[in-house]
Design brief:
single chain, alpha/beta, Udp-n-acetylmuramoylalanyl-d-glutamate--2,6- Diaminopimelate Ligase, Chain: A, domain 1, UDP-N-acetylmuramoyl-L-alanine:D-glutamate ligase, Protein-Tyrosine Phosphatase, Chain A, 33% helix, 24% strand, globular
Length: 495
């Protein structure tokens, strides 16, 4: 495709070459190591594998063209010398331009499928799985999912370079959407993180329904304040989606109605809303409830216990109904949904101990999971958890307090320490936990911590392993080291 076609209508200034004569044949990338002959290299400032400093390596690998940011310094003479034959273009903002360019390169695939994007602090992965399951079970639809657990169509994973991003960078996201369209996918469910929205990764995906779950403390390391965090989430509802489904129990969700008048559908457990749930009855196997919509009642059940799971189910049903699906089959599909990997994922050891693996890594999510467990636990509750390194430090003591309040024993351990000393992270969690009086152990090695918890648990006890969910790795320094909580549990349990 001609570079001129990719840039049409966008403000840009040609520094070298002719966009009309420059053909992009190998896609676009921010990563200099992934440049192939015919690629468009987009030099996004501060990108860990690219940026203006990587222009020369990208050209050496055969980049046909380079986009640089207005805020980037002038390219040195050595780069110009290596740029012979390549087109170099300066744009006001490379991230904004990247979303447009990548979408056009793959034929704007988002326009050709039903698109649902989910944002919020907690529940994004669960709601995305529920939307996919509801559409697949109720009508046999082929639906793609992009999020924390990777990218897939049904059970088929789409291979991508290993990454820790829930929402891929725009060139990768548009590539995935193009793959899903080409494989006959009818719709795509996408997790939209705050940073993805802030950095324009979700631009030009043509979202039909945007879903807002909730806003609680998290990611202050990225955003600084809760107001900034909220505003990043709200970008989804400022021109990126046609309709919205929002949680009316959350003050931020309730406020979205003023942003998109006439285009918002609400759900809630407590507030008045278009979709409501009453008569909740939970046990270890799931939750039964009555779903109310438009004056009608529907008996419903989900195979996951807890109020938060019912809220997620309401969000999923409302999103699918907003797409035009019949409500009855959607409600019936809820009880048939498979478990979401790493979200209240259950296992029973041969000795009868119940183990739950959950992604809870914020104060609110940890509190909700532990409160739910307390509602059905027959014996002691033992919680294994830590806090991620290079992330919001202000929540660490609070998470310790919450774990201690709702547990009989806690095991503090490592959880993606990144560049921090794992022991220093535990030092910050411990004061909140110690204030509750609940006994706890400190075992930095996560496998050893899980082993200790299992050895300390009796047949009627419940062990919660929180923080990583279905993640297949530990992030230590710059390395992604293979590690799975559930696989470790099964190995230790001898199954």
């Amino acid at each position: 495709m001609k570079l001129s076609e990719l840039l049409a209508g966008q403000e840009h200034r040609v520094l070298q070459g002719d966009p009309e004569k420059t053909l992009i044949t190998a896609g676009a990338t921010f990563d200099a190591h992934r440049v192939a002959p015919g690629s468009l290299f987009i030099a996004v400032p501060s990108h860990c594998e690219g940026g203006p400093g990587a222009v020369a390596p990208a050209l050496a690998r055969g980049a046909a063209a380079v986009l640089v940011d207005d805020g980037a310094p002038a390219l040195p003479a050595s780069v110009w010398a290596s740029a012979a034959g390549a087109c170099v273009v300066r744009v006001p903002d490379t991230r904004t331009a990247a979303a447009v360019v990548a979408s056009r390169y793959f034929g704007e695939p988002g326009r050709q499928m039903e698109m649902v994007a989910i944002t919020g602090t907690n529940g994004k992965t669960s709601v995305s799985y529920m939307v996919e399951s509801a559409l697949r079970i109720s009508e046999g639809a082929k639906v793609g999912v992009i999020g924390t657990a990777g990218s897939r169509i049904g059970d088929e994973l789409i291979p991508m370079p290993r990454s820790v991003l829930t929402t891929p960078e725009s060139p990768d996201l548009q590539y995935l959407l193009g793959c899903m369209r080409d494989r006959g996918t009818a719709g795509v469910v996408l997790e939209a993180t705050s940073m993805a929205l802030l950095t324009h990764r979700v631009d030009r995906t043509f979202i039909d329904v945007g879903v807002f779950t909730n806003l609680t403390q998290d990611h202050l390391d990225d955003h600084g304040t809760m107001a900034n965090y909220r505003d990043a989430k709200l970008r989804l509802f400022q021109g990126l989606c046609r309709r919205a489904v929002v949680n009316a129990d959350d003050p931020v969700g309730a406020g979205i109605q003023t942003m998109m008048p006439g285009a918002v559908t609400t759900y809630a457990l407590d507030a008045e809303a278009d979709y409501r749930a009453t008569d909740l009855t939970a046990d270890a196997c799931g939750t039964r409830f009555t779903l109310h919509h438009n004056g009608r009642k529907y008996a419903a059940a989900i195979p996951v216990p807890g109020r938060f799971s019912v809220a997620n189910a309401l969000a999923a049903v409302a999103a699918c109904h907003t797409l035009g699906r019949d409500l009855g089959p959607l409600v019936a599909a809820l009880d048939q949904m498979p478990p979401v990997p790493g979200r209240f994922e259950r296992f029973q050891t041969p000795h009868g101990t119940s183990v739950i693996v959950d992604y809870a890594h914020s104060p609110d999510s940890l509190n909700k999971v532990l409160t739910t467990i307390q509602g059905f636990a027959r014996g002691q509750v033992i919680t294994v958890f830590g806090c991620g390194g290079d992330r919001d430090t202000t929540k660490r003591a609070d998470m310790g307090r919450i774990a201690g309040t709702h547990s009989d024993l806690c095991v503090l351990t490592s959880d993606n320490p990144r560049s921090e000393d794992p022991r220093a992270i535990l030092d910050q969690i411990a004061p909140g936990l110690a204030a509750t009086g609940t006994p706890f152990e400190r075992i930095t090695d996560r496998r050893q911590a899980i082993a200790f918890a299992l050895s300390a648990a009796g047949p009627d006890d419940t062990v919660l392993i929180a923080g990583k969910g279905s993640e297949p790795h530990q992030i230590v320094g710059d390395e992604l080291l293979p590690f799975s909580d559930m696989a470790t549990v099964r190995e230790l349990a001898g199954t």
